[in-house]
Design goal:
About 35% of the residues lie in helices and about 15% in strands. The chain is an alpha/beta fold. The chain folds into 2 domains: about 10-190, Spore Coat Polysaccharide Biosynthesis Protein SpsA, Chain A, CATH 3.90.550.10; about 195-265, no CATH class. The strands form 2 sheets. Strands 3, 4, 5, 6, 7 and 8 form a 6-stranded mixed beta sheet that branches. A two-stranded parallel sheet has the order 1-2. The two termini are about 30 Å apart.
Length: about 260
C-alpha cells in the first residue's frame, strides 16, 4: 500500500536483482502517490480500492504466465525458490495449487510442517499462509476461482481469505498439494495471530456460520473458552467478546440475505 518507489523489492530478492523476475504489483494508493516501473518485467497497477482480497483479485485478473506465486511486500525469498516451484509442478501434473513452507527470520519453521508431500483437505487450509500458495493460473480462470472479497484485511471480515480461496479450489474438484520445501522467509508474527483482537473474533465467528450454520453458535462458546484457557482474554472480557462473536454471525447472515455472498461460492 502507498508505495512510491520499488526499493521494497530489494530485500525481497537479496540474491538477485528483482528485475530478473516477472512481478505484478497491485499498489493500493491515491492518485497523488502513484508507483511507476522502469523495468519491463515489473508491471504495476495503481488501484484506488482498499482490501487485501480486492487487491489479489485484481492481480488474478491481470496476471500472466502458467504458474503464479502470491507475494506480500514484507517477505524475503530464498535462492532457487522459483526452481523449487517449477520442479514441484513438473512432478505433480494433476495439482492445481501447490503450497510450500515458510521460514521465520529466526531461521525456524513458521509452524509445524509435515515432512512428506500430501494432498490437502479442507481441514488443512486454515494453517496455510497466502505467501505459501502457488497455482496454475489457467485452472483458476477456467473455473472462475477468486478471493472472497468479504474476507481478508481491509474487508468486512478481516481474516481467512486464503482459507476460502483454497476452499473454492477444492469445491471445484481441483487438487491442492503440500510440498515440504521452504521458499520464503517471514517474521514470526502474523496479523492472523491476533487472537485477542475483536477483528479476529468477529471474522472467525462469521466463518463459523459460513462453514457450519447453526452449530456456529456452539463454536462461539468453544472459541471463547479456548481464548480464556490460553489467557488470550480475561474473564472480565467474556461478555464483550460474546457480543463481538454473535455480531460476526449476525452480520454474515445479512450477507446471505442480500445474496452478495453467492458471488464467491
Amino acid at each position: 500500500m502507498n508505495r512510491s518507489n520499488l526499493d521494497f523489492l530489494i530485500p525481497m530478492f537479496s540474491f538477485a536483482h528483482f528485475s530478473e523476475f516477472q512481478i505484478l504489483i497491485i499498489n493500493q494508493t491515491t492518485a497523488e502517490n502513484l508507483l511507476i516501473s522502469d523495468f519491463s518485467n515489473i508491471r504495476i497497477i495503481n488501484s484506488y480500492e482498499k482490501g487485501l482480497s480486492k487487491s489479489r483479485n485484481l492481480a488474478l485478473k491481470n496476471a500472466i504466465g502458467k504458474i503464479i506465486l502470491i507475494a506480500d511486500d514484507d517477505v524475503q525469498y530464498l535462492r532457487d525458490f522459483d526452481k523449487k516451484i517449477i520442479e514441484a509442478y513438473n512432478q505433480n501434473e494433476t495439482a492445481t495449487a501447490i503450497c510450500f513452507q515458510t521460514k521465520t527470520t529466526e531461521n525456524k519453521h513458521y509452524r509445524s510442517y509435515k515432512t512428506n508431500k500430501f494432498w490437502l483437505k479442507e481441514k488443512d487450509f486454515i494453517w496455510i499462509l497466502s505467501i505459501e500458495i502457488t497455482f496454475r493460473l489457467n485452472d483458476l480462470k477456467q473455473n472462475n476461482i477468486v478471493f472472497n472479497e468479504h474476507f481478508g484485511l481491509g474487508a468486512k471480515f478481516q481474516d481467512a481469505e486464503s482459507l476460502y480461496f483454497l476452499r473454492r479450489i477444492n469445491y471445484n474438484n481441483l487438487k491442492v498439494l503440500f510440498v515440504p520445501e521452504t521458499i520464503v522467509i517471514h517474521e514470526k508474527f502474523s496479523s492472523s495471530d491476533e487472537l485477542n483482537s475483536d477483528r479476529w473474533l468477529y471474522a472467525k465467528t462469521a466463518g463459523f456460520y459460513k462453514r457450519n450454520q447453526t452449530i456456529s453458535y456452539f463454536l462461539v462458546f468453544k472459541i471463547l473458552f479456548f481464548l480464556l484457557r490460553k489467557k488470550f482474554i480475561s474473564f472480565n472480557e467474556i461478555q464483550h467478546k460474546l457480543k463481538v462473536g454473535l455480531k460476526g454471525i449476525s452480520d454474515y447472515k445479512k450477507l446471505l440475505k442480500n445474496n452478495s455472498e453467492h458471488l464467491y461460492d
